[in-house]
Amino acid sequence: MEKVVEMRGITKVFPGVRANDDVNFELAKGEIHVLLGENGAGKTTLMNILYGLYQPDSGEIYVNGKKVDIKTPGDAIKLGIGMVHQHFMLVHNFTVAENIILGKEPKKGITVNMKQAIQDVKKLADLYGFKIDPEAIIEDITVGQQQKVEILKALYRGADILILDEPTAVLTPQEIEELGVILKNLVKEGKSIILITHKLKEVMSMSDRVTIVRRGKVIDTVRTSETSIDRLAEMMVGRKVSLKIDKAPAKPGKVVLEIKDLRAQDHRGLPVLKGVNLEVRSGEILGIAGVDGNGQSELIEVITGLRKSTGGKFILNGKDLTGKSPREIIEAGIAHIPEDRHKRGLVLKYSLAENAVLGKHYAAPFAKGIMMNYARIKEYARTLIRDFDVRTPNEEVMASALSGGNQQKMVAAREINKDPELLIAAQPTRGLDVGAIEYIHKRLVMERDRGRAVLLVSLELDEILNLSDRIAVIYDGEIVGILDAKNATENELGILMAGGSLKNKKEGGIV
Amino acid sequence: MTANANNSHNSLLNVLKSTYRTLLFPLISIIVAMFVAVLFVVWGRGVGFFEGTSLLFKAIWNGSFGSKDSLIETFVYVTPLLFTGLANAVAFKTGLFNIGVEGQFTIGVLITAILGLISGLPAIVHIPLIIVGGILAGAIWGGIPGYLKAKVGTNEVVNTIMMNFIAMYLSNYIVMGPLNKPGVASTPEIRPSAMLWRFLGENNRLNTGLFIGLLLIALVYILFWKTTIGYEIRAVGLNPYAAEYGGISIKKNMILAMVISGGIAGLGGAIYVSGIQHNAMELTGFIGYGFDGIAVALLAKSHPVGVLFASILFGALNSSAISLQLVNIPKQIVFLIQAIIIIFVAADYIYKWIGEKRKKEAMING
Amino acid sequence: MDNASLPVVVALMAATLRQATPLILASLGGVFSERSGVVNIGLDGIMTCGAFFGVYGSYKTGSPAMGILFAIIAGMIVSSIHAFLSIHLKADQVVSGVAINLFSGALTSYLLLVLFNRQGQTDGVNALTYPKAFMRGIPVIGGFLSELNWYVFMAIILVFVTYFILYKTSLGLRIRAVGEHPKAADTLGVNVYAIRYLCVILSGALGGLAGASLSLGTTNLFREGMVSGRGFIALAAMIFGGWRPFGAMWASILFAFADAFQIVAQGFGWAIPYQFYSALPYILTMIALAGFVGKTTAPAADGVPYTKGER
């Protein structure tokens, strides 16, 4: 086996976190090698080191058997390494060709030879079977096409080693399939590929070998053909995946939230919600399953007032809340654990006490007129900290000083204590350790048992399956199926999430 | 967190630590700026380092605090800086950069020079009138870029710069046009009923405006840390996404902060005219208190109490101009000192950078 | 305007171009800086330094060409402070720009005393000689040409040069990429810091030249406050011109025209106060920015410091 990349003993420390801890990794020629791990496990950091974006604090890198020192992406490119980042690195108002040639422009005298560039790009695209217009502006083309531009960028620079960071996160099922074909073609041409993902199914269908990373450490490297989804999941999470929660059967009551034909657009003005219909009852957890980017984030944003809807409506306990402001919606009884606690959930430079009343800060008993009552606020924060077991010296500490798990507990505490009619939990356990995950799960079930309606959005199927009483699958901005969690299987959900239909399956066709 | 009894002790220590950290950098900036200034004196006067140092500091001290008159004059300079410093601080707290404090101050000056001419009003009506007038004028002048930022999304920095010039030319038009006092480049003197009390006698320009400024420091402190308005504008400044999520309107608070900031600046202009200047003059350049206010707020890290100390420093530097010239040091040296202070305050990141590096090294070694 | 025989329109056009020149040069500086992602409101101060050192250079060496060189170098030095603060130290670029402006004003008036032993303004120095008589001899446009100066030609040539660099060369492609999406450029091996340093220092060179065109090009001396906000007008012109070299030029010409026109208008006995013309550039820019006149969009990463290896 010819090793094209070998990384030995790589350690990388960011303030407060050891992202990579003595990591060893190797890539063989002509293979598709998956780096598997949960969010925050350190996969991307490792690859950013290989690509010269970060410098390791210690460790060595060998490319084609030679020890190398990769200080900048330029160095990596010279070594034949190309990277397709999760968030595309494209200049949105440049053309496809301009993006591809940037940094390695064909010249005519002292000017850029644009004609040549367009020809080169066309030739390259044809070679690998990409259909793409070199003169199109990036902001006008689809995400799938943008990804192809990213791959072309690497190939244009003569990359033999291709790193793809979570390439399927933003793709439609058809595009994922197409990507699979492209990758196979690339390997046929002698390229070696590293695929970063946390999605087990793609690992099984696309890769030759898998290296599993957990909390900055490599757990193992195995042949895909010699392992199974269950084994991989166990290694990835670090124990038998049985986050099964003991919960009593749900006692669903009246309809609390009613969503009717709800529509919305994304920041580019393209429709992302194409008529969502959904009901959430008191005393149940309704889970929304779906591949990232199918409209779940936007759905939550619309019903919390953070995004304007373009059609349809949503009703809470008979009261139409469509188009209301976030404050009016909070007051109407919707609480929300947001998917990104750093961006939305907390003002990191505020004390825990100040964060504890975010959203209720203007109302009694925390304020009277415009004067705030800080004594009451601190007292309240102490209650939350005690009740939710938030590990902190005191309530005056800045939120940024807490660990991720404790920050999330603080957010959950605040939202649950609003005693809402409807509790929305969007990826409530993302990036948390197992202890914190269990705690958050327990609290969500408790809220259900107290007769609250809970709307759970998660990208982790396990979480959906374990917590939900009913599961709605969102695909391409629509709810494509609602299953009873007792009978739902991962397989069925997978088919729906990929845009398939269960009827067809029973008739014997599909996927 | 072993024992609860330790908590209060810890938090006191934390307060001291954070105070030390907050103060360290401004202090370093001041020291470095003074040092550079000494070098300029050494070079300009051709004297030795120690002689240069003693010349400069003696002159600054004499000119600012050394005598009763200079002390009074220092606080004459401090008064408008309190307002412009606070005005900038309010905007900074909301994550906005209100370079337009200068223009809002100018508009406050202008409106007061106009309203101050009304005859037949008792002081008890006239002074509140010009105060309200100054606040409103400044608030409108600050509110326009605030509104444009919130509703149209245009950069407040650019718009406030533009409005500084518009204010200056508008003021010049009024001063040299409709309200020109024949033969001079200013408006006529305002009525005595519109003048603030010069409590140390008519010959000392110090006036009750100083106390209004000090009162305002307390008010802004309360505004920031005791009211829902402060809670909301600080939240918008620190994390607009979280603020929005918490039901706080980003747009409303941006406009509000610019209105408050402009109002304070306009009030400063009103106090300046009714306490010190007594008329509005034609401007060939900016009055300058608004720009100095940026420096004051930066040095104070937007803390209202810090604004007081930074204003005293800048006021002292300004008032020492004459005594500097007496010892043949160009008065421009004080502007140089001020500029260098800001350069170093701007370079605040050096400190943060070193701090982070140290933290990281500790983690690797530990 | 010493040539009374020229038609008013021609004199007006020439005056417009003369007054537009410092604005064009400085706004080109702004285009470079902001296209690479660094806001440079220190241009006003840089112009002040350029104006002063241009005169000082000519005074010291007797050669106005050396004066221009002094001005350019001074602009580059001052702008490299801004570059260091805003690129390396990730200082707030607006704060840094404010500091540069205050610093330049203080420095030049201090140096005026120390180097010239004068207060307020310097003595006159040698300026570039312009072949007025020869120009007048040129048929048809001779009268117009004779009213210009060399700086006008420099400014217009530099507009073309700037356009060429930004849109036709690989450097320009990289500059624009760095200003829109620095990380994308970085991942392709483009050195973001180097590009930004280059652009900010270039903007300093242009700002310095703009200052020289003001001091050496119009009055042959340096007077305190002579820049009087032109750096900001140039900034406004750059914005009004949509961060593009030709746009900035046309905006500069428009603003200068308003200024030149007021003199003519006064001759007509029109009653519009001159302060209105002075304020016009700022009012127009605000209107343009608010989107009432077409759409202006700043480079996406304008004013955002770039941190390598940020998480």
TrEMBL record, chain A:
Record has Membrane as a keyword: yes
Domain of life, source organism: Bacteria
Keyword Transmembrane helix: no
Keywords: ATP-binding, Cell membrane, Membrane, Nucleotide-binding, Repeat, Translocase, Transport
Sample GO molecular function, one term: ATP binding
Subcellular location as annotated: Cell membrane
Short name of one Pfam family: ABC_tran
SMART domains: AAA
Membrane topology designation: Peripheral membrane protein
Family per similarity comment: Belongs to the ABC transporter superfamily.
Protein name: Nucleoside ABC transporter ATP-binding protein
Species this protein is from: Fonticella tunisiensis
Automatic annotation (TrEMBL), chain B:
Domain of life: Bacteria
Record has Transmembrane as a keyword: yes
A GO MF label: transmembrane transporter activity
Localization in the cell: Cell membrane
Coiled coil ranges: none
PANTHER family for this protein: ABC TRANSPORTER, PERMEASE PROTEIN, GUANOSINE ABC TRANSPORTER PERMEASE PROTEIN NUPP
The name this protein goes by in its record: Nucleoside ABC transporter membrane protein
Organism whose genome encodes this protein: Fonticella tunisiensis
TrEMBL record, chain C:
Domain of life: Bacteria
Cell compartment(s), UniProt: Cell membrane
Entry GO terms, CC: plasma membrane
Annotated TM spans: 36-56, 68-88, 94-116, 137-166, 194-215, 227-243
Keywords on record: Cell membrane, Membrane, Transmembrane, Transmembrane helix
A Pfam family reported for this protein in Swiss-Prot or TrEMBL: BPD_transp_2
Membrane topology: Multi-pass membrane protein
GO molecular function: transmembrane transporter activity
Annotated InterPro entries: ABC_BtuC-like, ABC_transp_permease
Coiled coil start-end: none
PANTHER family to which the protein is assigned, alphabetical: GUANOSINE ABC TRANSPORTER PERMEASE PROTEIN NUPQ (PTHR43370:SF1), SUGAR ABC TRANSPORTER INTEGRAL MEMBRANE PROTEIN-RELATED (PTHR43370)
Protein name, UniProt field: Nucleoside ABC transporter membrane protein
Organism this protein belongs to: Fonticella tunisiensis
Taxonomic lineage of the native organism: Bacteria, Bacillati, Bacillota, Clostridia, Eubacteriales
